[in-house]
Specification:
ten-stranded parallel beta sheet; UDP N-Acetylglucosamine Acyltransferase, domain 1; about 25% strand; 4 helices; homotrimer; 40 strands; about 350 residues; twelve-stranded mixed beta sheet
Chain lengths: ~350, ~350, ~350
């Protein structure tokens, strides 16, 4: 149950209204007038909570839940306790997410206002209804839209442009970038610094001026301590709706299509392009100048050294079609069972 | 030898007292009244220093050391120079650590006081003897115990609770969390931001409100630029005495038992649980919703896709019992020696 | 073409002068008096731009470029459009880099001056011509050379020493370190915090005082959110001219020789040493107490558990000579094609 220290529900809402607003179907016999105060996980919910079931690993939690109501697939109805009101959805987690957003709307600003302990250059422009926290620095010529939150000790560099309804995390650093609307940058994100560009040839490594930008399109979310270098000349582009997790590295000139999902600690080398809705699982590494097709999926820890076709699922080091990789690992396992060890 | 610019020893101490306080035994003939000014590594020590020997890679350094005294296993006595006074311990590095802490006690606060250049909300509470550095931001309703250090440009979010004797690094960001006593957060640590929670189903990815907290128990240390997301509803929990290295990613709802050791650049996916004293070597990645047993050990770079039993040592991608993995690699090496290359 | 919002060219320059200053040869018929306003990538260049060709992946871009002039290898001359003036160089990217630096000199300071919103301890010393941005904190006894830029919300710890012409990124944190001349630290870099040092033996893990420093020599560049722990007694040393990318972890007592190239998300464990000009590709992990020889190259994602000889190229997990690793992978692939899968 959400700690009231940190969260306050907009509820209660009636079950029937809620079902309608999230596109779920009330099970026969469920009381449409039942008041629900908040959402909660199966293990933590009480009679005043709405919960959800979407992963068979948590079947035992479903069977034992004390939740007043549960969103689930109709096929799972027999597993829920008789006391719980049921809401059927073909996409239970998505329906639950809609409900959770009704109880806890996602807004960047909690109290509009500019902290006197923030540092705004007189030439910076802010839209209406922004909240700028103590220690935030907004440099000369920066332009920030309406209803943005600039959190403590964030640093917005010269002439950076930020759209409306953005949430810029504590200690984040932005330079040489244009940020769209409804973008969320978590704490410690670094955007727009020089890429890793140098030329070998004389003595030592000669730093090459990096003359591009980072373009972050609408509805992007970027996780804590991730870094996105600016382009070397062309821009680095993060397409609309991309979800990027923590500690991700995106090098200069990389282009992500729309809706890509980049899990934690992935690294994407310079000038590589991802098609729309590509999915990179945790700790994947991709070499430079490659093309990863639309809706391609790369398994966790893959090391990618060649293009990946649209729609394909690849895995392994070096990455190849995942079935092929699994057969390789299986063959290796059979050999290992027969053979002797290396050094015992 | 410690640079006096940065470190000041509390010594000198007499060898006999020191031996007693660290649980070591003075070798026959060692002068209990010998004064030692400080600790130092074998290669850098002089006659006024205590050093230690605990890794056979440094045997040559032991043989050549000019240290006044050395802590080592009694079995290594024959390798030390005749001029060095010897202290015997079954755990030489542990004994040395105790000595080093006598010369250089670990305390968070160097000079208590609140910098006038820090930003404390009037509703924040601080215990006695804290030191708050310039640029630190402590938001409304935050509560900080006694003898804490909040370093430059750290950002403590609303209603965050921190216990006694904590050391919060420069530029660290905390929100939605409860921190125990004697916790050390290194610079750039991000704790409590939204987890990577979104539902697929409609158009784009729907962000799901994250309504849990991060609980960091007593005596935890977290390395530079590591990130720990708050729970989605349940909490993310870091058990007492855990040691977490730099650039580690811990996702929402993860639970670490007591005393886990998490080496740099490890990533732990959502809802995975680690038993007490589990050890994860560098760059390990663990998928979500798994159980890693008590005292399990995962070799560096392992990719873990299934539960790991208590006490087991696993390695490889996908991870399996380490002997099995080693046999697989050995079999593969034999094959490689016989076969032709792929693409030459 | 560089966005004038963020970049201003020092051009125009005449082609002939430019060719001379970058050590390139004007192709027969090229107009030495042609004025060039700036540099740009092949795809984005117009008649007023100088571009370059150095990677056959971009041959199509060369053929279609509208660039006024292109630096390339003489052997590629037949591929360039007839309208482009050609400059021949045996190292086209290096020559282009020199030209780019003529149009866009790399200097840390844009307008010298100390922001009244920065926090300088009265005992800190700054050389001439520095620029200190809002929110930067410079602690007691710190010493900073001439023409340095200390960006917003950077935290320079007590008694830290920084040389001349350094650029310290937003939100960076420095302690217990000595920094040379012309060093560039990108945003979020953490240098000098405690290493991951603790002794096992009693109950829990006993933190060991870390009494060394970080020495960063001249002309080093360190990427965003990278972390370098200080030595435990010996120092951690980054040799002159090293190029370190984003999100890299360097543990206590590591020593890098001159000119090493460390790509993003590499992790180097404690006390390991790299020879001059060693190259570590992305996401490499190296165990502790190893020696990586001069000019050794480690392929992306390698896991290194033993010493690597000078000049060798290693790859794989565990890393071995790259040809051997490739043969192993090829053999495994052949087996996989013949065999059945593990679990389908």
């Amino acid at each position: 149950m959400a700690d009231p220290r940190f969260y306050r529900s907009r509820g209660p809402f009636a079950l029937g209204e809620l079902a309608q607003s999230i596109g779920a179907t009330l099970a026969p016999g469920a009381d449409a007038d039942l008041k629900l105060a908040d959402v909660a996980a199966l293990d933590e919910a009480g009679p005043e909570h709405l919960s959800f079931f979407d992963n068979r690993k948590y079947l035992q939690s479903l069977r034992q839940t004390r939740a007043g109501a549960v969103v689930l697939a109709e096929s799972a109805r027999g597993q829920a306790p008789s006391g719980a009101a049921l809401l059927f959805s073909a996409q239970p987690y998505y329906a639950f997410a809609l409900a959770a957003r009704a109880f806890h709307p996602i807004v960047a600003v909690s109290r509009a206002g500019i902290s006197p302990a923030s540092h705004l250059d007189p030439s910076a422009r802010l839209g209406e209804g922004c909240q700028v926290d103590a220690g935030a620095v907004i440099a000369a010529g920066a332009s920030i839209g309406s209803r943005c939150r600039i959190r403590a000790n964030a640093a917005i560099g010269e002439k950076v442009v930020i759209g409306d309804d953005c949430d810029i995390g504590a200690g984040a650093s932005l330079s040489h970038c244009l940020i769209g609307d409804r973008v969320i940058l978590h704490p410690g994100v670094c955007i727009g610094q020089d890429g890793f560009g140098f030329a070998r040839g004389g003595e030592g490594h000669l730093k090459v001026p990096q003359l591009g930008r980072v373009i972050v399109e609408n509805d992007v979310e970027i996780g804590a301590n991730s870094s996105i270098d600016r382009g070397s000349g062309p821009d680095t582009i993060i397409g609309p709706g991309c979800k990027i997790d923590n500690l991700v590295q995106i090098a200069h000139n990389v282009r992500l299509g729309a809706g890509c999902v980049i899990v934690a600690q992935v690294g994407i080398s310079g000038s590589t392009q991802l098609g729309d809705y590509a999915v990179l699982a945790g700790q994947v590494g991709i070499a430079g100048h490659l093309k990863i097709g639309k809706e391609a999926v790369l398994a966790a820890k893959s090391g990618v050294h060649s293009d990946v076709p649209a729609g394909a699922t690849y895995g392994g080091i070096p990455a190849r079609p995942i079935r092929q990789w699994r057969r390789m690992v299986a063959a290796m396992a059979r050999l290992g069972r027969n053979g002797r060890g290396e050094g015992g």
